[in-house]
Design brief:
Blueprint (H helix, E strand, L loop, with lengths): L1 E5 L5 E5 L11 E8 L3 H8 L15 E8 L11 E4 L9 H4 L25 E4 L2 H4 E3 L6 H4 L5 H11 L8 E5 L3 H10 L6 E5 L3 H10 L3 E3 L6 H8 L5 E6 L4 H10 E9 L11 H4 L5 E3 L8 H9 L9 E6 L3 H8 L2 H4 L3 E5 L7
Parallel strand pairs: 8-9, 8-11, 9-10, 11-12, 12-13, 14-15
Antiparallel strand pairs: 1-2, 3-4, 3-6, 3-15, 4-5, 5-7
Helix pairs in contact: 5-6, 6-7
Length: about 350
């Protein structure tokens, strides 16, 4: 089969690799019908994730069709259309029993496209299939469902819920890439009074407005801190969500929140960021970090199926699976291409 293979920092290829096979009674083999590319994949290609070995098939999000199951798989059957989660859960260890699947001790967590071969391929082996894939209703489009593999639960859990967003809050989201826009979508579920998005790209600020941000600021030309304080009687935001993953944006979030406020870091950082405790220690701040657990995926899927969660315009570019290299080129140059998310479809499925 064909797959996107990592060959060290800056090097990738779409090449022939062996077909996956069932290795454990808990495994499922899924034919990939729709897949996307994540910002984390770009971090891997930059060399920011040293635990990814050369030769690894990348990707941790997909919608597909179950082709084979191990003898201990009971929740899905051959022929089922499923969402493959970015997080794999053994379901038995201490952290899984607490719903912290991202920290799984039993061989799960973020393993697809990280410690084992991932989803940017014609087929993928999914360990612990009973607790790591979700059957999809027929009427849910694949390109919408694949957004629930990672960015929607990540923004909701690590940004909105960890940030303790409450009705009436002012929420500032720094970064309007896919994760930041997903944070806008999921923050609205908690009815904040204001959602402010900060991003230097005009197209992404426009997208944020489309998804529900009522104020969009350019950090290069706008007085971001001043505008946020105008909205909040001089106090600052209740919650700041960091959705970029660079030192400047983290430090900006710390500055933007009010005393007693919350900074929820979602971005993947490849370099150290400074925490200015010399000024922050007295402000009673809460700062959280996290890897998504995907404990909310089933809830978000029910909302998507019921029409309570809509994702129009989040996928901006569509490709066939064999155009994986072109999709990476487009996704890695958002300022030039205007890309938000890409969706790639298998030859047997066509564009959806």
């Amino acid at each position: 089969m064909k797959a996107l293979v990592y060959h060290g920092p800056g090097r990738r290829s779409w090449e022939d690799v062996p077909d996956p096979a069932v290795k454990s009674p808990d495994d499922a083999i899924v034919r990939v019908d729709c897949v996307t590319i994540c910002g984390t994949d770009l971090h891997i290609l930059k060399g920011d994730v040293a635990t990814v070995e050369t030769g690894r098939v990348l990707g941790h999000e997909a919608v597909g069709t179950v082709e084979e199951i191990g003898s201990n798989v009971h929740n899905v059957a051959v022929g089922d259309r499923v969402l493959v989660s970015c997080i794999t859960a053994c379901g038995r260890c201490r952290f899984c029993r607490e719903g912290r699947y991202g920290q799984c001790l039993g061989g799960g967590g973020w393993i697809l496209g990280h410690r084992i071969d991932g989803t940017q391929a014609e087929r993928v082996r999914v360990p612990f299939a009973d607790t790591s894939v979700y059957r999809l209703p027929d009427h849910v489009r694949s390109e919408d469902a694949v957004m629930l593999a990672d960015i929607l639960p990540t923004s909701y859990e690590v940004g909105v819920l960890a940030g303790a967003v409450q009705p009436g809050d002012t929420v500032v989201i720094v970064g309007a890439g896919p994760i930041g826009l997903a944070a806008v979508i999921t923050a609205k579920l908690l009815s904040p009074s204001h959602i402010v998005v900060v991003d230097p790209a005009p197209g992404r600020r426009e997208a944020a407005a489309t998804f529900g941000a009522d104020l969009q600021l350019d950090p290069g030309t706008d007085d971001v801190l001043g505008r946020v304080r105008e909205l909040t009687d001089g106090l600052g935001a209740d919650v700041a969500v960091e959705a970029v993953g660079i030192p400047q944006t983290f430090e900006s979030c710390v500055e933007l929140v009010r005393p007693g406020g919350h900074v929820a870091n979602v971005g993947v950082h490849g370099a150290p960021a400074t925490l200015h405790l010399e000024t922050a220690w007295i402000r009673d701040l809460t700062i959280t970090t996290g890897l998504v657990d995907t404990r909310t995926t089933s809830v978000l899927l029910r909302m998507l199926a019921a029409g309570q969660l809509t994702l129009p315009g989040l996928v901006t570019h569509r490709f066939g699976m064999e155009e994986m290299q072109d999709a990476y080129d487009v996704f890695s140059r958002p300022s030039e291409t205007g890309v938000l998310k890409v969706a790639l479809f298998g030859v047997h499925t066509g564009m959806e």
